[in-house]
């Protein structure tokens, strides 16, 4: 334990990231300052948001600097500690980087976790992590679904979307999911309990809108939007009066080389006096215990299916990350580092 392999950014990606944008470097482990903890990362969370952090553009977090390891949430055990409150061996969650060891300073999002509180420590990156909290607070606080309403979810078979569909169902809603390919659409129904599934691949906005019309004959009251572009445009054509659109992500444009695609049917918001609202999971950090308790209860009751897709090895960081954009991840995308 003298060196730290780190997945660093060496060039800003143009469009879809390629191998030349990154370098795997090995650096000596740093000394710790008072109050710091050295964490041996066991797992890194690979999230679509990482793509945005690689651009030199203003956002809710500063861009990853060239030469720095790629930022990611990780979970691992303390192997050295200069914080009297953190014992060696303690599991720690935090916004760190794709690297074998991270120097963590507890506070805010970086905190010890009680590993015995979850079936697997990876659950702190999925159902009890940002993904689960995004689904829970995004749906309940931004989407505000009522029993009997119809909830349309894009990216519905993914980490966030699969949970949104299941929560909406528990709240008594009709759920319609949009995902890529027949296999994912089968999983929407069989694994995540969606009432209807729509395959967006190869469909124009008009064709997608026709499918949404069939799947949601009473119109759509809540859209939980993970994708944007044509899918959002098609959904907008079916919103009911006073619909709520929770804008969670726009993954269809994260690798765009021509810039944002935009929503072209915004007129529908006026026609239906509807509301579109962005959501950022970090706004809810003080309420995470409440969200985790709700998810934990449903999980314990056996009423929540949580899928995790775990690839292994820091040398596989890029192909594992790119799964998110190819759609080849089946559940929360996680990289095993230890
Ligand atoms: P995920 O859904 O598990 O994985 C990404 C999925 O997106 C892929 O499996 C793929 O599924 C779909 N996708 C990729 N490119 C696409 C495209 N061009 N068009 C349509 N679908 C595409 O990822 P996640 O972690 O749950 O994130 C889902 C969304 O939530 C992302 O937009 C992310 O940025 C957002 N998010 C936002 C917050 C927040 O605080 N606002 C927090 C967490 C996540 P298919 O096979 O179905 O295409």
Reported for the largest beta sheet, the result is: 7 strands, mixed
Mean pLDDT rating: 96
- Order of H and E elements: EEEHEEEEHEHEHEHEHEHEHEHE
**Beta-sheet strand percentage?**
25-35%
Quote the CATH topology of the largest domain: Quinone Oxidoreductase, Chain A, domain 1
**Radius of gyration, CA atoms, in whole angstroms:** 20 Å
Listed once per kind, the bound small molecules are: NADP nicotinamide-adenine-dinucleotide phosphate
- Write down how many β-strands occur, each being a DSSP E stretch of 2 or more residues: 15
Low-confidence stretches at least 5 residues in length (pLDDT < 50)?
none
> Which architecture of the largest domain does the CATH hierarchy give at level 2?
Alpha-Beta Complex
CATH superfamily of the largest domain: Medium-chain alcohol dehydrogenases, catalytic domain
Provide the domain count: 2
Number of helices: 9
Class from helix and strand fractions: alpha/beta
Oligomer: single chain
Query: What percentage of residues falls in helices of 4 or more residues?
Result: 25-40%
Global outline: globular
Structure commentary:
This protein has helices at residues 49-53, 130-143, 159-170, 182-190, 205-215, 229-236, 267-271, 288-300, 317-326; strands at residues 3-9, 22-28, 37-45, 71-81, 91-97, 101-104, 111-112, 150-154, 174-179, 196-199, 220-225, 239-247, 275-278, 308-312, 332-336. Helices cover 26% and strands 27% of the residues. The radius of gyration is 20 Å and the shape is globular. It is built from nine helices and 15 strands. The protein folds into two domains: 3-126 and 306-336, Medium-chain alcohol dehydrogenases, catalytic domain (Quinone Oxidoreductase, Chain A, domain 1, Alpha-Beta Complex); 130-282, 3-Layer(aba) Sandwich (Rossmann fold), CATH 3.40.50.720. With 338 residues, it is of the alpha/beta class. Strands 3, 4, 5, 6, 7, 14 and 15 form a seven-stranded mixed β-sheet that branches. Strands 10-9-8-11-12-13 form a six-stranded parallel β-sheet, with helices on both faces. A two-stranded antiparallel ribbon has the order 1-2. The longest helix is centred in the middle third of the chain and has 14 residues, at 130-143. Helix 2 (130-143) crosses helix 3 (159-170), helix 2 (130-143) crosses helix 8 and helix 5 crosses helix 6 (229-236). Strand 12, helix 7 (267-271) and strand 13 form a beta-alpha-beta unit. NADP nicotinamide-adenine-dinucleotide phosphate (NAP) is lined by residues 47-49, 130-131, 134, 155, 157-161, 179-180, 184, 226-227, 248-249, 251-252, 279-281, 324-325, 327, 329, 333.
């Amino acid at each position: 334990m003298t060196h730290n392999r780190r997945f660093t950014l060496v060039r800003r990606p143009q469009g879809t990231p390629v191998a030349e944008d990154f370098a795997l470097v090995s650096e000596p482990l740093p000394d710790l300052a008072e109050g710091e903890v050295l964490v041996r990362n066991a797992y890194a969370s690979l999230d679509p948001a990482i793509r945005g952090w690689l651009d030199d553009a203003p956002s809710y977090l500063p861009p990853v600097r060239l030469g720095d390891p790629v930022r990611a949430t990780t979970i691992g055990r303390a192997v050295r500690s200069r914080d009297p409150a953190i014992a060696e061996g303690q599991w720690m969650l935090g916004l760190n980087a794709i690297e074998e060891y991270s120097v963590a300073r507890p506070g805010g999002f970086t905190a010890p976790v009680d590993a015995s509180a979850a079936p697997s420590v990876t659950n702190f990156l999925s159902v009890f992590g940002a993904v689960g909290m995004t689904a829970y607070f995004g749906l309940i606080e931004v989407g505000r679904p009522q029993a009997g309403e119809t909830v349309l979810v894009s990216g519905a078979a993914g980490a966030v979307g699969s949970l949104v569909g299941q929560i909406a169902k528990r709240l008594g809603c009709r759920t319609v999911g949009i995902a890529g390919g027949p296999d994912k659409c089968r999983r929407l129904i069989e694994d995540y309990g969606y009432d209807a599934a729509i395959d967006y691949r190869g469909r124009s906005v008009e064709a997608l809108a026709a499918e949404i019309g069939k799947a949601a004959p009473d119109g759509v009251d809540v859209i939980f939007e993970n994708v944007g572009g044509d899918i959002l445009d098609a959904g907008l054509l079916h919103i009911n009066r006073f619909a709520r659109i929770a804008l969670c992500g726009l993954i269809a444009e994260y690798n765009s080389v021509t810039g944002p695609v935009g929503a072209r049917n915004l007129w529908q918001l006026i026609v239906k006096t509807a509301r579109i609202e962005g959501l950022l999971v970090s706004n809810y950090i003080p309420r995470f215990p409440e969200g985790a308790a709700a998810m934990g209860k449903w999980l314990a009751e056996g009423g929540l299916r949580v899928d995790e897709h775990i690839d292994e090895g820091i040398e596989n960081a890029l192909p594992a990350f790119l799964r998110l954009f190819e759609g080849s991840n089946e559940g929360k995308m996680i990289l095993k580092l230890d």
